[in-house]
Model the fold of this input.
Amino acid sequence: MNNPKTFITCAVTGNLTRPDQTPHLPITPQQIADECLAAEAAGAAAVHIHVRDPQTGRPSMDVELYRDVVDRIRSASRELIVNLTTGPGGRFVPSEADPKVYAPGTTLLPPLERVRHIQQVKPDICSLDLNTMNSGPDVVINTPKNVRIMAQAMRAAGVMPELEIFDSGDLNLALDLIRDGTLQGPGLYTFVLGVKYGFAATPETVMYARGMLPPGAVWSAFGIGRAEFPIVAQSWLMGGHLRVGMEDNIYLERGVLAKSNAELVQRAIEIIRYLGGEMATPREARAIIGLPETRQPMAAVPATSFTPS
Done:
């Protein structure tokens, strides 16, 4: 059954999209914050944020860059939901001579280093990747032990985790973490579709992943590249929420670069309205997710167990 209202998250810059792929990718804290606020004006209720070195455009985990972006957003909007990534720091590239030794491109960090900006900036939400998987020629590593350390740090900071699901094993791990009280159920989930060696961007995948969720879970789905807008429709049809943005796709249509994240949000809203849907405001999305009506750090909650039925 479809939700009475659907909220959109806009992932404005990401970690892998490169400036040489599109001149419209936001790089500096001012550009990233401006894109977030423009996405809100276009109809997004939440923004998912990575930061980049303003000089090189390369991905960064600098706490002060995150703080700068979030301060700029908060000075202009009290209701837009801010979701910061904790994904960087999990990539391993094996050396050809000795696969136990890392090669250039490896980004592995201790788990608490990956959430240091969350502890200090305290966004509304932060992503928690549960995947260990092949990613292109490399591998992404998120061991259950490290995921638990990160989840516990998020809880201590009073920040809600958004569980990013790349394959069915990630959902099984999430359910285990809910059972043992590491995570509070039923949870907030995002299905990542179309990453090579992960979930395929198909209706069957969305239906399968949805069927694994505990009752009462809030979920979204998004597709990578050309799958972005088809998954917008599929997620809505199956009762989920939406995500678009230049982290996931840089094209408005075949061969036409999106000039802004707001254009991608507007296109997604057009699709949902044609299907008969209604979009949630940031305040309404906060109620759906279980956040305060305006941007405040969440109160830390005690661990509780939840047994899916």
Notes: The first strand starts at residue 8 and ends at 11. The chain has one domain: 8-289.
